[in-house]
Amino acid sequence: MLAMISERRAELEQQARELHGMKHLTVKDSRYSNLLQTKGRPMSQTRDVTVSSAPPPPSPPVNRKVDLYDDPSVFDVIDREAIEVASEDQSTFTELVRQLTRNCVTDVEKARVIFRWITVTNLNTMEFNETHVDADTPMGLLRGIKVGTESYHVLFRRLCSYAGLHGMVIKGFSKSAGYLPGKKFDDKRFRNTWNAVYVAGSWRFVQCNWGARHLVNAKDAPRPSEQSQVDNLRYEYDDHYFLTDPDQFIYEFFPCQPEWQLLRHPLALQQFENLPFVRSLFFKYGLRFADERQSAVMVTDAIGAVTARVLMPRALVENLVFHYNLRLEGSDADVMDGVSMRRYVMQTIVGNSVVFKVHTALKGRYILDVFANLITAGHNYLTGKPMRFKSVCKLGIACTHLERSMVPLPDCATGEWGPLKAYKLFGLIPRSHENAVINTGGDVRLSFVMRRPLRNFQTALRQNGADEKVLSRYVKKVLTDETVTFDIRFPSDGQYGLDIYTREVAAAAADVGADDRGKQQKQLLTHCCKYLINVRQR
């Protein structure tokens, strides 16, 4: 307790020193003599900004982030300037802030350029002179951050004070790396620190560390053969953590002081723990849960079943692709008794709802990871290489009572069931069956209309315990200039899975040499879509 009191006293003394230096601060902008244009509006010749000594009390923002800006590209010029300044050394905070804010008009732009300078600064490539770095300089503070004696949050607040902005350092809990849905914050783990800055008449959240956190993710780091990508990599950032709306920020961060939730109705810690575990992409894609009371952990029924539904904007239905993974809680293992646990999840899309139906095989606690990726217009997905997905949310699943366990789904390719994926990626329009599940008493004919020339299709009919080579005899393909049709017979009743693969054969293939034709034949097939077929012959 004494340590906490001493730490808090030190923080208050530091804030008092900074506020004292800000008293009667006046910022003169002489750069407007050429009437530069910012976002299409002329700027006045000078602008005085006087900052009061006392910061305003915390209260909910008067508007939302989208009311301040709806596209990060409005800051392109400012962002480039932050990158340029980050490539040089500044001896004092005054010099650094002067260079950063010389073309800023509003306090939002000042906060932005500071945020981007911090997120673009790559400490992994910086070297410091151990004996000639003053701790009370930008380089000294950066060195302290690198060795762990300072933090980005202190740096952000310091730069805000020099720029004439009120800034605060907020402490609390966060659902950071290693956190599992529904876990209690009952010790010192998952402590975190972030900022609030007063801009546009309201307090707003800023999290510099998480704005650039993917830069230290080993999975995203360039390989040695991709060294040319290093410079571009460090210029990437996550805009979600700049001026984040409080009702989104609360899903990941819980301050020790409830007033710094900036919510009209602050949550209790238990309510925070029970919120679903979502990531920034969840909000970037405009996702939400169909059940407004969606909890962090779902409890299965007597047969181990549970369903989660995520809603996406209707405008993204044809462009957003989802994926999933099911694993045991506290483990990366996603295989049970030699069977992939993904086979106990069925993901479909109904309207603008992404539905995940899960059947657990045994009693226990599980984690359902949900991933997504936005399809890029004009990108060629017929390469045979898997798409890269990023996490949007994690849900806990608790199976405490199991009367009867379900068998796994047929061993098809992982991912979404149904024909919508074929339309999203390859322009195939289902003419016969639009639903992922087909219930039949006999043969099935699947038919698609092609919006682009696809001249090579293959299928794989699968059934638990059956020989795939034997089942392949029961599928016939008919290909025309505009359609592809699959006629499927079934040797017996049961549940089947049908995978459809495709690849594109260039129109000029007939004109190339034998060696080139051989390379084309080796082109990998790309998964197109899959159906679940329940057969009960009369």
From TrEMBL:
It holds the Pfam family Ig-like_KY. Residues 142-210 form the Transglutaminase-like domain. It comes from the Eukaryota. Residues 32-51 have a biased composition (Polar residues). Residues 31-66 are annotated as: Disordered. SMART domains: TGc. This is Kyphoscoliosis peptidase-like. It comes from Priapulus caudatus (Priapulid worm). The lineage of its organism: Eukaryota, Metazoa, Ecdysozoa, Scalidophora, Priapulida. The gene is LOC106811597.
